[in-house]
């Protein structure tokens, strides 16, 4: 048995890693008879050539309980898509690749755009959104999991721990978020989570009060993790951002739609490492620079729907409050690193905080200057209302791409 504790907001399954993966998988095979499971893998073509994805696919090939694997493939031409079909062919499970840049899915995207329903910018959110539509049209999974394709320390136990709380037939969880320590190569990682999201949430609570939404977000050990599982029906009604605000957006939507008693988080691994984004201080469209802007805007939009009123003066106060809290946390992280024999570059930590602080103002200005912005991709409920047969035609297009000539 794993031990768990209740943190007052959501159930936290901690140290589930103590249970052997073989025991988890044996249970999940039994669970799959009641709740079939599908896995979504949002991927760039470049990740097929990286150091992580081949190992991930080899691990998934050994998973005995999956009904379906759905791969969202971005930035791939025809020859690259054909290579992807061969690359993923080692999976014994039923698997389908969404060639998002292919002519069939592009034609459907044009229909969506004509109705004002298409995701407005490329990115992980758009990729996940199309995969979610396909999973619903396929109808093969009652529980859907998702994780990134750049995890260098991946093993199939991570997937089993992610699925277990939602797939268990006697549990009533609708959504599960994964977490893990961000430590690799003797370094303390996870800068955006540690140095931006945590102090920002606490600054917002200090200024606007302990709102239930802020308390909820702050209860997640790693709100920016790209690993989560959910009941398939959760995908119907959520509206997610197309940009780097995806993870915050998903957490916000499940908070809006479900009781916190139906949500949980789970400890996935003792170690986790993936591709690290550069800070990109000189380029606001890339790296942690872009990520921090998108996350801040996602939080501001959600708080506005909760009745919080923002102003230019308020954003300046927020920046100052955040900056002080973030600097205090750097001190604590430095001590934590020393105690655990890890390295931490305080100079670069403070430079990152300075960038994030400036971006809180930049995101605030963008929020105030463009109140009519439509930041979220419409839900699939709305798509079916506008174009009832589009999910079925998308399913047929994906089948044609995977089974026939392209």
Spell out the key features of this protein.
Nucleotide-diphossugar_trans; Glycosyl transferase; transferase activity; alpha/beta; 406 residues; two-stranded antiparallel sheet; transferase
Characterise this structure:
This protein is of the alpha/beta class and 406 residues long. It has 15 helices and eleven strands. It has a nine-stranded mixed beta sheet, sandwiched between helices. The chain has a two-stranded antiparallel ribbon with strand order 8-9. β1 and β2 form a beta hairpin. α1 crosses α6 and α5 packs across α15. The protein is globular and about 55 Å long. GO terms for molecular function: transferase activity. InterPro entries: Nucleotide-diphossugar_trans. This is Glycosyl transferase. Keywords: Transferase.
Structure summary:
One of its GO terms (molecular function) is transferase activity. Keywords: Transferase. The protein is α/β, with parallel strands linked by helices and 406 residues long.
Supply the helix-strand structural class.
alpha/beta
Q: Determine Rg (CA atoms, Å).
A: 21 Å
Distance between the termini: 49 Å
The share of residues in helices is 40-55%
Task: Detail the topology: elements first, then pairings.
Layout: E1 4-6, E2 11-13, H1 21-31, E3 37-44, H2 53-60, E4 66-74, H3 78-87, E5 95-99, H4 103-114, H5 124-138, E6 143-146, H6 156-167, E7 175-179, E8 183-184, E9 187-188, H7 191-208, H8 212-218, E10 228-231, H9 234-237, H10 246-257, E11 263-267, H11 287-305, H12 312-339, H13 346-369, H14 380-386, H15 390-403
Helix pairs in contact: 1-6, 5-15, 7-8, 7-12, 10-11, 11-13, 12-13
């Amino acid at each position: 048995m794993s031990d768990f504790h209740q943190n007052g907001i959501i159930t936290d399954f901690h140290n589930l890693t103590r249970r052997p993966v073989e025991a988890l998988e044996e249970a999940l095979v039994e669970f799959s008879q009641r709740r079939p499971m599908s896995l979504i893998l949002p991927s760039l073509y470049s990740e097929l050539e990286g150091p992580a994805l081949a190992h991930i696919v080899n691990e998934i090939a050994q998973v005995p309980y999956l009904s379906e694997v759905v791969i969202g493939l971005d930035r791939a031409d025809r020859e690259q898509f054909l290579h992807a079909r061969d690359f993923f062919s080692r999976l014994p499970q039923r698997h389908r690749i969404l060639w998002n840049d292919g002519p069939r899915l592009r034609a459907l995207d044009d229909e969506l755009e004509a109705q004002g329903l298409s995701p407005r910018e490329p990115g992980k959110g758009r990729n996940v959104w199309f995969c979610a539509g396909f999973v619903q049209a396929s109808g093969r999974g009652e529980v859907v999991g998702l994780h990134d394709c750049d995890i260098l320390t991946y093993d199939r136990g991570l997937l089993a721990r992610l699925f277990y709380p939602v797939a268990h037939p006697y549990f009533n969880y609708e959504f599960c978020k994964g977490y893990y320590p961000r430590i690799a190569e003797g370094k303390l990682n996870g800068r955006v989570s540690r140095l931006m999201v945590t102090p920002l949430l606490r600054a917002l609570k200090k200024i606007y009060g302990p709102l239930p939404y802020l308390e909820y977000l702050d209860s997640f050990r790693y709100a920016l993790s790209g690993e989560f599982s959910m009941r398939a029906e959760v995908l119907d009604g959520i509206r997610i951002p197309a940009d780097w605000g995806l993870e915050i957006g998903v957490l916000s939507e499940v908070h809006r739609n479900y009781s916190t008693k139906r949500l949980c988080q789970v400890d996935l691994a003792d170690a986790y490492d993936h591709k690290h984004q550069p800070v990109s201080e000189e380029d606001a469209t890339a790296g942690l620079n872009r990520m921090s802007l998108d996350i801040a805007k996602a939080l501001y939009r959600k708080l506005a729907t909760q009745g919080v009123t923002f102003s230019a003066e308020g954003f300046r106060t927020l920046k100052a409050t955040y900056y002080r809290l973030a600097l205090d946390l750097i001190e604590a992280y430095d001590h934590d690193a020393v105690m655990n024999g890890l390295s931490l570059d305080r100079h670069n930590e403070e430079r990152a905080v300075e960038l994030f602080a400036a971006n809180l103002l930049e995101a605030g200005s963008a929020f105030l200057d463009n109140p009519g912005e439509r930041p979220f991709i419409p839900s699939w409920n709305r798509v079916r209302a506008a174009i009832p047969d589009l999910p079925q035609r998308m399913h047929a297009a994906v089948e044609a791409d995977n089974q026939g000539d392209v």
